[in-house]
Amino acid sequence: MKPRVIKIYSKNNDYQYIETLRRNREKRQRAGEFFIEGVRPLNQALQYNWQLRALLYERDRKLSDWATTILRTAAVETHYELPANLYAELSNKNEPSELLALVTMPADTLARIPRKPNPLVVAFDRPASPGNLGTIIRSCDALNVDGLIISGHSVDLYDPETISATTGSFFALPTVRLPSPKELLPWLDEVRQRVGSITIVGSDEHGDCEPSEQDFTQPTLLIVGNETWGMSAAYRDLCDVVVNIPIAGSASSLNVASATSILLYEIDRQRRQKLLKGV
């Protein structure tokens, strides 16, 4: 079905709706869609079959073959055509991308996480920074994590800053929002029934052992805590073991995104070694 073309000439209702999606969390959630821009995010959204609702472009700009191909082939309801000044105001970049897009939010269901025989899943407790959340999504994608769970009162997963910090990995990694840790319990039971067991490993500066001393080659749920307060009591009670990363120098702690990346590298290293040994 051919998209309808809506020509925007002023800051009318259509423009205000799009602009609100860019900056307002509550409106994004109510609408069930969010705003993206950039070549890589848009390519990744299409590659991983996210549902695009609309594409936006500048009226008098000569578009590249990449942009015209997407406009011609992407299955969307609407094309919005805007003048240069209004288009630039929607963009978060000094030089606006050729295309902007409105994308439908997927359901927050743990069924989106693939059912792997040896799952590795990360739970992030009450993330507070879009940059940290985006960086952790990027590290999860790079280091063979099957899915990310964020729970509690947290920064918005669909904030443009979060999406930008993932550099495209946002669309490759299933990320699910939950109200609290208790919604994890039925999923954990299902995983245990399917694969036998899953080790729940927390991370804290006062942990029981170093990451290299923990066996991560088995099904694992890694829990990382809030940037200021660490893991909640509910998550700590779920843990089978808590690991800590030894640090030196004058630093009192590691940034949560840095610490998570270190832990994920150690997990991936152990799993790759196991595969090489054929165990």
Keywords:
279 residues; 60s Ribosomal Protein L30, Chain: A; Alpha/beta knot; 6-stranded parallel beta sheet; 5-stranded mixed beta sheet; 10 helices; 36% helix; elongated
Detailed description of the structure:
With 279 residues, the chain is of the alpha/beta class. It has 2 domains: 4-104, Ribosomal protein L30/S12 (60s Ribosomal Protein L30, Chain: A, 2-Layer Sandwich), CATH 3.30.1330.30; 110-277, SPOUT methyltransferase, trefoil knot domain (Alpha/beta knot, 3-Layer(aba) Sandwich), CATH 3.40.1280.10. Helices cover 36% and strands 19% of the residues. The protein is built from 10 helices and 11 strands. The protein has helices at residues 13-23, 25-31, 39-47, 65-73, 84-90, 130-142, 160-165, 185-195, 233-238, 256-277; strands at 4-7, 33-37, 52-58, 78-82, 100-104, 120-125, 147-151, 175-178, 199-203, 220-224, 241-243. It has a 6-stranded parallel sheet with strand order 8-7-6-10-9-11. The protein has a 5-stranded mixed sheet with strand order 1-4-3-5-2, with helices on both faces. Helix 7 (160-165) links the parallel strand 7 (147-151) and strand 8 (175-178). Helix 1 (13-23) crosses helix 2 and helix 6 packs parallel to helix 10 (256-277). The longest helix is centred in the last third of the chain and has 22 residues, at 256-277. The relative contact order is 0.13.
